[in-house]
Amino acid sequence: MKKTLRLLFVLALAASPAFSSFAAEAKRVLVVTTTTGFRHSSIPYAEETLKKLGEESKVYTVVDFARQPDVQVPRKPNKPKDLAPNADEKAKAKYDADMKKYEAEMAKWTPDFEKDVKAKQAEFDAAMSKSLEKVSPANLAANKIDMVIFANTTGDLPLPDKDGFIKWIEDGHAFAAMHSGSDTFHHFPAYIEMLGGEFETHHAQVPADLIAADKQHPANAGIGESWNIKQEEMYHIKSQDRSKVHMLWFMRHDPNETSLQVFFPVSWCKMAGKGRVFYTSLGHREDLWSDDPNMKGRVNPPEISKQYQAHILGGIKWALGLAEGSATPNPEVK
Fold it and tell me: What start and end residues bound the annotated signal peptide (predicted)?
């Protein structure tokens, strides 16, 4: 009888919300930071921060990274642009210095050197493909991955099965991307459709006065109606159908032309089939990712960094189905 009562007590505990929350395993996340285009210096900080947020929140665990191969491929130098007819002495001096540097670099490009470069490129390509095997649908299933994050990826990544990856998301898995995650797969329409927008261009880094489109969403993170960032590289977005995305943060003007009143998207979420997708164009600067107060060259104070971390953690939790929030398109927001 005592054994039966003890068993019923244990079963009751297991069925209770508190026990279930305690016993539930953290969601399993794969972070991708490979690039075939521009490579952001903030990527190491992104990796560190995403890992830290998972450890601190205990709601997800970064179980692996798909990282850039440690293979250096020399790049052929570009010839400096011709001098303008009206160039001043300062411009001429800079042109002369740039030309000397260019000629010195070009002197290295002998037939044997180019042969070595091609070999290095082949080695890099093979290593990149091996790294991205982790994103194949078979490996995602075998490793029980719940979410994939593209943290400042760029270019046309050699995924082993691009269409299969999109289907994996649409079948009910989570996806998140930060900053140049929208500067990825420009030639793969299914990815742009899944993400809900595409990088077009950017200009000089500027202060950004963001407006909340949904104060209740986890990606608002309690920041409130507005969010003033001291400095960031703000992306112009194209290929976006606002009737298909739930806007989270936006601006009411062009960040570099403040007199130009336009709707300027910054962060959104959406459904892709049964899968949840979260994107933020923020994340260029190291001092957004890291809240280290002693970071050299810091412009954004640690308080803004912590807001950014809360913003992406809220978006990740929502995409994983661990926090409630709307994904209903809200094109009426202006």
Answer: 1-23
CA-CA distances (angstroms) from residue 292 to 6, 68, 207, 286, 296? Answer: 49, 25, 20, 10, 9
The string of DSSP codes covering 128-140 is: HHHHHGGGSHHHH
Q: Tell me how many domains the chain contains.
A: 1
- Closest to 278 in 3D by CA, of 199, 205, 175: 175
C-alpha 250/C-alpha 213 separation (Å) is: 7
What integer is the mean pLDDT of 210-218? 98
Instruction: Report pTM.
Output: 0.89
Distance between CA 310 and CA 320 in Å, rounded?
A: 15
300, part of any domain: yes
Segment 65-101, tens digit of pLDDT: 999 999 989 989 999 999 999 999 999 999 999 999 9
Task: Give the C-alpha separation, 270 to 277, whole Å.
Answer: 5
Q: Which domain holds residue 47?
A: 26-77+112-319
* Per-residue pLDDT tens digits for 255-307: 999 999 999 999 999 999 999 999 999 999 999 999 999 999 999 999 999 99
Beta strand 147-151 with 27-32 is parallel
User: DSSP assignment, residue 183?
Assistant: S
Which CATH number is 35's domain given? 3.40.50.880
